[in-house]
Amino acid sequence: MTVVPSRRLHAQTPYDTVQVRATSLGRGVHVLFGAGGNIGLSVGEDAAFVVDDQFAPLTPKILAAIRAITPKPVKFVVNTHWHFDHTGGNENLGKAGALIVAHDNVRKRMSTEQFMAAMNRRVEASPREALPVVTFNDGVTFHINGDSIQVTHVPPAHTDGDALVHFLKANVIHMGDVFNNTGFPFVDLSSGGSVHGVIQAADRAYYLADDETRIVPGHGPVTDRRRLRQWRDAVAAVRDGVQREVRAGKSIDQILALDLAKPYTKEWPAGHERFIRAVHEEVTRR
Prior knowledge:
There is one protein chain. This protein is α/β, with parallel strands linked by helices. It has one domain (6-226): Ribonuclease Z/Hydroxyacylglutathione hydrolase-like (Metallo-beta-lactamase, Chain A, 4-Layer Sandwich). The chain contains 9 helices and 14 strands. It has helices spanning 6-12, 59-67, 84-87, 90-95, 104-110, 195-208, 225-247, 252-257, 272-284, and strands spanning 21-26, 29-33, 39-42, 48-51, 74-78, 99-103, 114-116, 121-123, 134-136, 139-144, 147-153, 163-167, 172-174, 214-216. A 7-stranded mixed β-sheet has the order 1-2-3-4-5-6-9. Strands 10-11-12-13-14 form a 5-stranded mixed β-sheet, with no helix packed on it. Helix 7 (225-247) crosses helix 9 (272-284). The protein starts with 5 loop residues before the first helix and ends with a helix.
């Protein structure tokens, strides 16, 4: 397989055809869908507060969608992790005056070339203007737009720099790619991720939520804690199945042939083989 540099990937994506759509989640919080990770948006008297920013070519469309909701400028951008489909707009928004905030490991990974082994892809170091200006270890709270927004680092899950963004008064949790509502999770082991950590992070978000909480996944439609729990249990069941087969001495090819994720194909059709390979790699390298 040929390694595909991230810039070549971007050049092949038909951004001209992408439409950025905004949906209100109530109390000044919105979610924007386009290409790449779902964008969170808080608006109010103070400023526009953004969670993730997709790809650089989409910045004009993203800003147009925000301006249709509020005339306030984007003052803060929080990255839920380092991946380019969530941080690609950092440089544009940073140059426009936004303060970029993320976990310490997000800045570390964006500062140097990365290799995503599961995708066999090298990702170039980001320009200085794209790097988080403010970083945190455990978490940080923003008091803005009449809400308290708690940004909390979770132990290695999708990557080693994941954060949950909890809009307390609006009762919304943006989970980044710790939760993928289109399929099984992509666990980026080469970025310090952990299958076990994904399950633990889902548990943490579940207990932060209540029956009225709107859950924003990194990809896929907005949902609730009931579906988050169903997804978490499916992920755990497949993880446990792979561990059981490893203990029985099965090879990765033999485990893949069992199609352990088949019972969940209707609800979460994507990412089965990649997830099973990640589980196998993690549990056999210990």
